[in-house]
Structures are given as C-alpha cells and as structure tokens.
Amino acid sequence: MVTDHLGRQFKTLRLSVSPECNFACTYCVDVKDKDIHTGHHKTLEPNQFCDLVSRIHDVVNLESVRLTGGEPLLYKPVTRLVSLLRELGIPKVKLTTNGSLLAYKAKSLKDSGLEFINVSLDALDPDVFRRVTPRGHLDKVLKGIDTAIEIGLKVKINCMVMKGVNESQILPLLRFAGDRGITIRFLELMKMGYLYHDFASYLFSEEDILNEIAKGYSFVSLKRKESSTARYWETMDHIRFGIIANDSSPFCSDCNRLRLSHDGKIYGCLSVNQGFSLIESNESPLGTECILMKAMGQKQDNHFVGSPLSMKAIGG
Ligand code: SAM
Ligand code: SF4
After folding, report:
1. How far is it, in rounded angstroms, from Cα 186 to Cα 9?
2. C-alpha–C-alpha distance, residues 196 and 193, integer Å
3. Sign of the dihedral through C-alpha 310, 43, 106, 110
4. For the chain, does the N or the C end have fewer beta carbons within 10 angstroms?
5. How far is residue 276's CA from residue 83's CA, in Å, rounded to a whole number?
6. Residues 97/71, Cβ–Cβ less than 8 Å
7. 28 lines ligand 2 (CB under 6 A)
8. Pocket residues: Cβ below 6 A from ligand 1
9. Is residue 4 in a domain?
10. Which CATH number is 105's domain given?
11. Which structural domain range is residue 137 located in?
12. Average pLDDT for runs of 10 along the chain of length 316
C-alpha cells in the first residue's frame, strides 16, 4: 500500500494521452507559443499505456482512470485505449474533452466502455467564447454535448471562469446545464503555465462565483465527498453545480490523484514540474511502488503552490 503521513493513497489516475490540442484556451496556452501550432509529440500506444496502468493498478487498486490531455479525442486510438482499460478491470473509465470532436466520437466511446465525460465549455455567447478560446468552435462543442447526452453518457460541464473575461456566462451556463439535467462545475483559475506570475489578476474566486449565481438563484450547499476536488450546491429548482476552488478551498489534504503523462512519466502533484519515468523503472511491483512513493512525496500538505508547467503539457 502506498500511503503518506496524511493517510493519502492513490485511487484515481489521470492519464494524459497527448499534449497536443486543437484549441488554445487563453488560460491554458500562450498563443505566442509556436509549439501549439507545430507540436508533434511522441506518445505511447494503447497497449503501452495499458501495461503502465496495469502496473499501477496492481499496486494501488485504482478506482478510476480519466483520459485527458491536451485534447484526448485527437489521440486516434482513444476508443481502443478505453476498451483495454475496461478489460484490465478499471471500474470507471472517464474522459475530459474540449468537445470539438465529441459529436463524431461519442457513440464509439460509449460502445468501448466509457461512461463518464466532462466537457469544457466556458461561454455560450459566441463573442465571449472566441475571447476565451480563439481557435475553438462553439457550435461543435454544443453539438458534442447534446450527442453525448442523447446516447447516454454521463456528462458534466467544466467552466473555467476568468475575471474580466467570461464571468457574464456563469448564469447562462447554469441554466444551460439545468435545462439538460446535468451538473456543471465552475473552476477557479489555477496558478499554472504562462499565467503563473499573473494568475491573481484573472482569479474569479469561489465567493465571486457564488455571488454571481445568487443574482439568479437561491441554493443550498451539499456535503463534500472525501477526496472530491469540487464542493457542490443545489438550487431550489434542483440544478446541481460545483466549484473547484483550488485557491479559496484547497483540497490537497485528501487528494488521491496520480498523473501519468503521454511519455510514461508519473507526477504526484501539478505543483511539481518533474516526473518520474515509469517506463525506465524496474517493472517489478517493488520497482513500481518505489516510483509511486516518490510521486506521493510531491504532494503538498495543504495548499497548491502552482507551477509554470502548462495544464496542456501535464494533463489537466
Ligand atoms: N483539452 C481538454 C479540455 O479542455 O477539457 C482536456 C485537458 S484540459 C487541460 C482539462 C481541464 O483543465 C479543462 O477543463 C480546463 O478548463 C482546465 N484548465 C486548463 N488550464 C487551467 C488553469 N490554469 N486553471 C484551472 N483549470 C485549467
Ligand atoms: Fe486545449 Fe484543453 Fe488547454 Fe483548452 S484547456 S487549450 S482545450 S488542453
């Protein structure tokens, strides 16, 4: 069992299948970075990812694996990877996507064993959407969400709120989620990537988000589940919403997340810019445990301290 002085264990794995992305959200990547247009990164094959996940699963008995990136739906064999993970006995396989390719891929993802999908949607107003995501396509994302709901995937929406950019979209997005009977989570900006030094000027806090929602709804808070990144509330007409408030309500103290990058490196925390290669480590359970113990040592006790590494690179 891999555990630390706070009793934390690894139970959920976030697997970043590729750092490539077809969007360029302003909070995630610097559009001046040439790599976002030309990046071709060597990434592992589904069976190679599965071998690594299997080694981890044997040691920590994972409860879920979430595929992320970059944009995971750009990874061509994504459905094959989902099937292999299910065959491995991972109880829940989930995915986070920008939604641009979801309308095409939702059915094959569901058929391969995916049940849960989070779609990032930061605005409904086309002009605001373009400000947040200049290379994005709002109509495709909306079609992706509705297709995923129609075929029975369990969909949640993630909305990253940036002060002065898209806070006007909080209430329309809450109504959009309510109309579809799905949960939406609002995210506080994390101190990461090229905004590492500048994040405070864009931070729209948990309190700010609640104040904005209070302009349209009355709501009550729900009990937080252990190890959950989000705290949840419910409006009087039963719209459930969450806030992932990394800065205002840090959740490091019972964090159970582990990250595996596209090139087979393990990270125990987004705050630490250095991974440990699982591929190059000894393949025995003891060798795997040793790497996982090092990753556990990267976790922060209470508060996320941030990193200049972009979410897109490490897998958000
Ligand atoms: N491309 C996919 C997407 O956008 O959903 C998956 C990867 S993306 C890095 C995963 C999540 O990280 C998204 O919901 C995005 O809003 C969030 N994210 C990116 N940069 C962030 C930041 N600096 N702070 C908080 N969340 C961030
Ligand atoms: Fe791409 Fe997701 Fe980052 Fe947006 S948040 S640039 S969609 S990786």
Report:
1. 26
2. 5
3. negative
4. N
5. 26
6. yes
7. yes
8. 21, 27-28, 68-69, 71, 96-98, 120, 158, 160, 187, 189-190, 192-193, 311-312, 316
9. no
10. 3.20.20.70
11. 12-314
12. 86 94 91 60 92 96 96 97 97 97 98 98 98 93 98 98 97 98 96 90 97 98 87 96 90 88 92 89 90 90 81 80
**Confidence at residue 187, expressed as pLDDT on a 0 to 100 scale:** 97
On whether the CB atoms of residues 66 and 13 are closer than 8 A, the answer is yes
238: left (phi over 0), alpha (psi -120 to 50) or beta: left
- Cβ atoms of 10 and 61 within 8 Å: the answer is no
Based on the structure, what is the number of domains in the chain?
Answer: 1
Tokens of 242: 């969450």
Residue 113 domain flag: yes
C-alpha 181/C-alpha 118 separation (Å) is: 14
Helix (H, G, I), strand (E, B) or coil at 234: strand
Residue partners of 281: CB distance under 8 A and separation at least 6: 287, 288, 290, 291
Render pLDDT for 126-151 as a digit per residue (tens, 0 to 9).
999 999 998 889 999 999 999 999 99
Domain-embedded: residue 250: yes
Residue 171 lies in a domain: yes
| Span from the CA of 116 to the centroid of ligand 2 (angstroms) | 19
What single-letter amino acid sits at 119? V
Please state, in angstroms and as integers, the Cα–Cα distance from residue 222 to each residue in 231, 242, 246, 257, following that order.
Answer: 7, 9, 18, 22
Residue matched to tokens 């077809």: 22
Q: What are the structure tokens assigned to 37, written together?
A: 């247009």
Find out whether 257 and 14 touch, Cβ atoms under 8 Å. Answer: yes
- Indicate the top mutation candidate among 17, 22, 28 to test ligand 1's pocket, ranked by most ligand atoms within 8 A of CB: 28
In terms of Cβ atoms closer than 10 Å to its own Cβ (0-12, 13-18, 19+), residue 62 is buried
**225-239 pLDDT per residue, tens:** 887 889 999 999 999
